[in-house]
Amino acid sequence: MNAELYPACGKPVQHSIVEQILIQSAICRALPRNAHVIMDNLPQSIMASLLNAAGISYDMVVPEQLLSKYGHKLIDMLSATGIPFSCLGEQAGQLQLVPRVEAGFSGLARTPKIVNVQTVDDAFVGLRKVNWLAMEEVSIGFLNSAQQCIAQQRPLISLFYGGNVTSLLQWCEMNQYEAVGASLTGVTSESSAGKYYLFPSSVLLKQVAEYLAADETAEAQLGVSLERQVHKWPALCKSGDALAQLTSDYLTTCSRHYPLATMQASGLYAAELHDDTEWRWTGPEHDTVILLPMRAKGLYRVSLSVLALPEGLETNTVRCFMNGIQITCQEVKAGSVITFDYFSDKPELPVELLLSVSQTVNCGGRALGVAISGIQVAWNLSE
Question: Pairing with 75, which of 98, 148, 187, 233 sits 20 to 30 Å away (CA)?
Answer without folding.
Answer: 148
